[in-house]
Automatic annotation (TrEMBL):
Pfam families: CCP_MauG. PANTHER family: CYTOCHROME C PEROXIDASE-RELATED, METHYLAMINE UTILIZATION PROTEIN. Keywords: Heme, Iron, Metal-binding, Oxidoreductase, Periplasm, Peroxidase, Signal. It comes from Methylobacterium longum. This is Cytochrome c peroxidase. The keyword Aminoacyl-tRNA synthetase does not apply. Residues 54-202, 207-328 form the Cytochrome c domain.
Length: 347
């Protein structure tokens, strides 16, 4: 099946620098900050799972196919919905019985650049390692791995697709995981007004948004965690949200005080379309998110040292919201159809 990337790769390949000077009232550090948001030139793929068109197409098919759920009613796209910014719009992911899981569905946008452990608490060592848990979990897709491999092996079209992607017809867990991860690395944030501004179009965002950018990188310190083109440092921080037994990374690293209640920094791409917010969906709106940071969250020994009351003015809050709005496209994006020919060669 042919598929088309839209303008996502234009973000990666079309921008060559940062243009424009610092206007009146701008922070003198603005141009330096802008340089740190230049887009990457290619999508990274690991040496042990390099990109091929056949493998990516197999992964795309698997991602959207309910064949990987026990009763044939769920797929990866049940929770990672393309036109919901590759999340599900819920406070917490839905179980197959339509209850709530413990955590919110994370977006898959720019997952190729998510270094280090993945998941809100970092339980997955790589993107390849993620698929087995939701696939086999009784409350999620509820299909034991041997049954999944058996179903795919018995389907002549899947057997042929695995043979094409891996030069061998054997359907294995490792190949299933590799194909899904290859497709998911193609889920790249589309060009937003912010990207056009970074490319040099001064009229792409408002003056209020530019002031919000200065605040984001300056006094508010948001860029300390939400840094670079993907707006994440790929690390874990306690920002004063989790409570009780909801200890995040601390569950896996119980001897670390700093990691108690620490959760993975999410990307801010398409953030305006991805509420509610936080790992547990406990903050309903972006305005409420800013209020959380403004007051500094829950004060405790594990709280990140960079989290402290900001005492933002009403104008500063409005400017931050204006800036965050520039990180979303006007209509969102749907990458269910992508043309592999538009992608740069994998490194």
């Amino acid at each position: 099946m042919a598929w088309k990337v839209g303008t996502a790769m234009a973000v990666l390949l079309g921008f060559v620098g940062v243009g424009g000077g610092v206007g009146d009232g701008a922070d003198p550090r603005r141009d330096g900050w802008r340089a740190t948001y230049r887009p990457p030139a290619t999508i990274p793929f690991p040496a042990e799972n390099p990109y091929t068109p056949a493998k990516a197409e197999l992964g795309r098919r698997l991602f959207f196919d309910p064949i990987l759920s026990g009763d044939g009613t769920r797929s990866c796209a049940t929770c990672h919905v393309p036109n919901l910014a590759w999340g599900d719009g819920r406070a917490r992911a839905a179980t197959r019985q339509q209850g709530d899981m413990d955590l919110r569905t994370p977006t898959l946008l720019n997952i190729a650049w998510q270094d280090g452990p993945l998941g809100w608490d970092g339980k997955f060592h790589s993107l390849e390692a993620v698929a087995a848990m939701p696939l086999t979990a009784p409350g999620n897709m509820n299909l034991p791995m041997p049954d999944a491999l058996g179903r795919l092996s018995a389907d002549p079209s899947y057997a042929a697709a695995f043979a094409t992607a891996f030069s061998d017809p054997d359907v294995t867990r490792e190949r299933l995981e590799a194909a899904l991860a290859t497709f998911q690395r193609l889920i790249v944030a589309d060009a937003a007004p912010f990207d056009r501004w970074i490319a040099g179009s001064e009229d792409a965002i408002s003056e209020a948004a530019k002031s919000g950018f200065d605040l984001f990188n300056g006094r508010a310190g948001c860029a300390g965690c939400h840094s670079g083109w993907s707006f994440t440092d790929n690390s874990f921080h306690d920002i004063g949200v989790g409570v009780g037994t909801d200890t995040g990374r601390g569950r896996l690293k119980p001897t670390s005080v700093a990691l108690t209640y620490a959760f993975k920094t999410p990307t801010l791409r398409e953030v305006g379309r991805r509420g509610p917010y936080m790992h547990d969906g406990s903050v309903a709106t972006l305005d409420a998110v800013i209020d959380l940071y403004d007051r500094g969250g829950i004060e405790r020994p594990s709280r990140s040292r960079s989290i402290k009351p900001l005492h933002l003015s009403a104008a500063e809050r409005a400017n931050l919201l204006a800036f965050l709005a520039t990180l979303s496209t006007s209509t969102g994006q749907d990458l269910t159809t992508v043309s592999f020919a538009e992608l740069p060669p994998a490194p």
